[in-house]
Amino acid sequence: MEIVYRAVFMFVFLWVITRVVGRATLGELSTFELLLYVTMGDLVQQGVTQQDYSVTSAVLAVGVFALLTVAISYVNWRWPRARPVIEGIPIIVVSDGEPVLDSMRKERLSIDDLMTAAREEGIKRFSDVELAVFESNGRISFFTRSSDDSSGAPDPAPTGT
Fold first, then answer.
1. What is the fold of 91-144?
2. 18-64 tens-digit pLDDT
3. Are 93 and 100 in contact (CB under 8 A)?
4. Three-class SS of the chain
5. Domain boundaries defined on the chain
6. What φ, ψ does residue 17 adopt, rounded to 5°?
7. pLDDT tens per residue, range 79-124
8. Residues 6 or more apart in contact with residue 57 via CB below 8 angstroms
9. How far is CA 3 from CA 19, 32, 41, 51, 56, in A?
């Protein structure tokens, strides 16, 4: 039973640490998922190399991590008010072509990182950006101004009589 307590403690500890550290751009993998996979790999390694002399302990600890992950997913689905605490909320970092420095400072996002992300999306100037959102998964979504009016639903054709 001690292994279950240790696994629960480490799970909660890793979750808190990833929430405190903030968002990181790690491709498709969130910071928490990366830490979770590394920790689970270490737990399995301990069981395989017999450092604690028990494969059962490793299986039990990884199982507890998996159950807690499913529980957090369920809480996220069942109680939408818990979502901002568990996953975080998107933050506007560029509004009407101007970087929102207070939001960027709060999220520890440098102007260089923002410019790099914009260039990766093919955006040359912030003035082309209507809105940029720092998503809870660490990605930045850019919404640019369109110079033509062909986007969106077409205007209804005038009806003549």
1. CRO Repressor (3.30.240)
2. 666 555 544 456 677 777 778 777 776 665 555 666 667 766 777 78
3. yes
4. CHHHHHHHHHHHHHHHHHHHHCCCCCCCCCHHHHHHHHHHHHHHHHHHCCCCCCHHHHHHHHHHHHHHHHHHHHHHHHCHHHHHHHCCCCEEEEECCEECHHHHHHCCCCHHHHHHHHHHCCCCCHHHEEEEEECCCCCEEEEECCCCCCCCCCCCCCCCC
5. 2-86, 91-144
6. -60, -45
7. 999 988 888 889 999 999 999 999 999 988 899 999 999 999 999 8
8. 3, 46, 47
9. 24, 21, 16, 14, 10
Per the document, the length of the chain is: 161
Q: What's the distance, CA 20 to chain centroid?
A: 13
